[in-house]
Amino acid sequence: MRKRKMNIMLCFLAMTIVVAGCAKSTATNPADTEVKVAESKPDANATTTKKVVSTSGKEVELPGKITRVVNTWPSSATMMIFLGAGDKLVGVHKYVKTLPFNKLIYPKLEQIPTAEENPEELLKLDPEVILTASDDNIKSYTQVGLKGVNLMFNNYKTMKESVSALGDILGGDYKSKTDRLVAYIDGNLKKVQDTFKNLREEEKPVVYYAVDNMYSTTGAGTIMEEWVTNGGGKFATSDLGKGMRVTVTPEDILKKNPDIIVVSGGEGSKKVVQSFKTTPEWSEIKAVKNNKIFVIPSGCFAWDRFGAESALQILWAAATFHPDLFVMDMKEETRKFYKEYSNFDMTDQQLEQLLKGEVVK
Q: Any signal peptide, and if so, which residues (predicted)?
């Protein structure tokens, strides 16, 4: 009996050793390990991120795929609409909804909530990113856990940076569109620069730019100064102030005696043009006497300012200031531009209205 028990115990011990040995062999077998790694699947809930650099140089980490954007800077919001990204907008500045052309490009605009700068209110819109024109705004967004990117620009160099960053944010096919838009800006700048590279100073007209009223303009260091100078003109107010808000007097303009006056288009532009023509203080100015007053087109955003159409403004300025030197079919160029980036087929009537600086509805 004892012998039988002993044999059973020895058999059990032997089986235990064999099983342990097999287990150890399985755990350390490289081939088995590789098979297990190959068969493992990534976590379906894992999220990717991407880093985007704002025009103020700050790096921001965002979700890899962006589907919910609040855009509190009107020109940037209109650029998204222009590029066909309206469905990504979950909040826009109220001014965007006052621009009729945006509703032609994106009929669902009215359905998008109005976005204020209040961080608590923005939280309710549940955005993945807020696009803005100020780093100060971003500080307040961060305090409530929101991400913001500053896309402000005020010249063609930073415009290209802003457009490129917007493509990084939107991703996918939108990045391809923004890359093409950046190349288009570069191409237009080269066209006008090549045309006017030998233009003498005395051949360049003095150009006065007006926005909102006769005495409201901009100064040095602005995108307005750039499209005037690139278009073969002299910016009348370069030495009268800097930045986006410069107020002039009739005496200032009489001294400059501009050859050409250009007025920011859209709502109210006809009234400004009429003021130039009927105000006695302006009657002796060359631009008024020679009827050289032009209204700048306005589409998704005013061409002369910060929208995507600023790329077209380069060509418009050159063709307006020097129609004999810079020959451009602006109708055809404009039609192609909106078709390519917005997939919008403009009617002949809409095109006529647009190029006259009228409100297109």
A: 1-20
pTM for this predicted structure: 0.84
* Closest C-alpha to 124, from 68, 66, 166, 67: 68
CA distance 170 to 167: 5
- Average pLDDT estimate for 242-250: 93
CA distance 19 to 141: 61
Q: Taking a C-beta distance cutoff of 8 angstroms, is the pair 160, 189 a contact?
A: no
Q: What is the pLDDT of residues 338-349, one digit of tens each?
A: 999 999 999 999
Interatomic CA distance for residues 71 and 114, integer angstroms: 10
Q: How far apart are CA 64 and CA 178, in angstroms?
A: 18
Predicted pLDDT of residue 272:
96
CA-nearest of 90, 111, 85 to 169 is: 85
Query: Of 276, 270, 209, which is closest to residue 244 (Cα–Cα)?
Result: 209
User: CA 140, CA 148: separation in Å to the nearest integer?
Assistant: 9
The residues near 156 (Cβ < 8 Å, ≥ 6 apart) are 185, 189, 223, 226, 310, 314
CATH numbers and ranges of domains, the chain? 49-178 (3.40.50.1980), 199-355 (3.40.50.1980)
Residue pLDDT, tens place only, 107-138: 999 999 999 878 888 999 999 999 999 999 99
Write out the two tokens for 262: 């250009």
In which band, very low, low, confident or very high, does the pLDDT at 97 lie, cut at 50, 70 and 90? very high
pLDDT number for residue 65: 95
Element (DSSP H or E) covering residue 4: helix 2-27
Q: If you average pLDDT over residues 20-36, what whole number do you get?
A: 37
Q: Are 142 and 150 in contact (CB under 8 A)?
A: no
